[in-house]
């Protein structure tokens, strides 16, 4: 990523996902009108990936209660997602759409494609209901992510979106004090 993707609108895409026993079409339009997480990972049937997707599955109910839909994406096909879902206890508990991106269009749209390998980096993007990217986090392949930290970031993004003029400090949790940037705060924090 040479320039920031923050506050840009998601680019058009059309893909097939494995979701709740069916193959379903997903486009960028499906992400509008609600908060969304697009969660890229390198490949099915690997090592760190199932731990991350399983962790996300464990937090999915919480995310749904916050009005958030999760979309996992790898450059595998939707057929491979189904096979993995059917053969792994960890992946079998996933209830969110698993998007296949075999052409790499979506991975390139979000700037996470490793061209030489045809795989996506571990990228996590939080998208607001208007289709703007509000959180972007990209990891190297060997570094797994935490869904509980993602939940906190989404809570902060949702708070800021509904509380004009307020910002959330480091490690902020819902119910804690926020900040209202002003001349009076300069040098006092």
UniProtKB/TrEMBL annotation:
<dbReference type="GO" id="GO:0033554">
    <property type="term" value="P:cellular response to stress"/>
</dbReference>
<keyword id="KW-0560">Oxidoreductase</keyword>
<keyword id="KW-1015">Disulfide bond</keyword>
<dbReference type="GO" id="GO:0008379">
    <property type="term" value="F:thioredoxin peroxidase activity"/>
</dbReference>
<keyword id="KW-0049">Antioxidant</keyword>
<comment type="similarity">
    <text>Belongs to the peroxiredoxin family. AhpC/Prx1 subfamily.</text>
</comment>
<dbReference type="InterPro" id="IPR000866">
    <property type="entry name" value="AhpC/TSA"/>
</dbReference>
<dbReference type="InterPro" id="IPR050217">
    <property type="entry name" value="Peroxiredoxin"/>
</dbReference>
<dbReference type="InterPro" id="IPR024706">
    <property type="entry name" value="Peroxiredoxin_AhpC-typ"/>
</dbReference>
<dbReference type="InterPro" id="IPR019479">
    <property type="entry name" value="Peroxiredoxin_C"/>
</dbReference>
<dbReference type="InterPro" id="IPR017559">
    <property type="entry name" value="AhpC"/>
</dbReference>
<feature type="domain" description="Thioredoxin">
    <location>
        <begin position="4"/>
        <end position="159"/>
    </location>
</feature>
<comment type="function">
    <text>Thiol-specific peroxidase that catalyzes the reduction of hydrogen peroxide and organic hydroperoxides to water and alcohols, respectively. Plays a role in cell protection against oxidative stress by detoxifying peroxides.</text>
</comment>
<dbReference type="GO" id="GO:0005829">
    <property type="term" value="C:cytosol"/>
</dbReference>
<dbReference type="GO" id="GO:0102039">
    <property type="term" value="F:NADH-dependent peroxiredoxin activity"/>
</dbReference>
<dbReference type="GO" id="GO:0042744">
    <property type="term" value="P:hydrogen peroxide catabolic process"/>
</dbReference>
<dbReference type="InterPro" id="IPR013766">
    <property type="entry name" value="Thioredoxin_domain"/>
</dbReference>
<dbReference type="Pfam" id="PF10417">
    <property type="entry name" value="1-cysPrx_C"/>
</dbReference>
<feature type="active site" description="Cysteine sulfenic acid (-SOH) intermediate; for peroxidase activity">
    <location>
        <position position="49"/>
    </location>
</feature>
<dbReference type="InterPro" id="IPR036249">
    <property type="entry name" value="Thioredoxin-like_sf"/>
</dbReference>
<keyword id="KW-0676">Redox-active center</keyword>
<protein>
    <recommendedName>
        <fullName>Alkyl hydroperoxide reductase C</fullName>
        <ecNumber>1.11.1.26</ecNumber>
    </recommendedName>
</protein>
<dbReference type="GO" id="GO:0045454">
    <property type="term" value="P:cell redox homeostasis"/>
</dbReference>
<comment type="subunit">
    <text>Homodimer; disulfide-linked, upon oxidation. 5 homodimers assemble to form a ring-like decamer.</text>
</comment>
<keyword id="KW-0575">Peroxidase</keyword>
<dbReference type="GO" id="GO:0006979">
    <property type="term" value="P:response to oxidative stress"/>
</dbReference>
<keyword id="KW-0963">Cytoplasm</keyword>
<dbReference type="Pfam" id="PF00578">
    <property type="entry name" value="AhpC-TSA"/>
</dbReference>
């Amino acid at each position: 990523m040479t320039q920031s993707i923050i506050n840009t609108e998601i680019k058009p895409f059309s893909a097939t996902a494995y979701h709740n026993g069916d193959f379903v079409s997903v486009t960028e339009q499906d992400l509008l009108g609600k908060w969304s997480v697009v969660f890229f990972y390198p490949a099915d049937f690997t090592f760190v990936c199932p731990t991350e997707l399983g962790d996300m599955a464990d937090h999915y109910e919480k995310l749904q209660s916050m009005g958030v839909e999760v979309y996992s994406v790898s450059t595998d096909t939707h057929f491979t997602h189904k096979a993995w879902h059917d053969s792994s206890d960890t992946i079998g508990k996933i209830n969110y759409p698993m998007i296949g991106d075999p052409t790499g269009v979506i991975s390139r749209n979000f700037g996470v494609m490793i061209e030489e390998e045809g795989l996506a980096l571990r990228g996590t993007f939080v998208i607001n209901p208007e289709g703007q990217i509000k959180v972007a986090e990209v990891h190297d392949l060997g570094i797994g992510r935490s869904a509980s930290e993602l939940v906190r970031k989404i809570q902060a993004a949702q708070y800021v979106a509904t509380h004009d003029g307020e910002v959330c400090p480091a490690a902020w949790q819902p119910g804690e004090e926020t900040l209202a940037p002003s001349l009076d705060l300069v040098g006092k924090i």
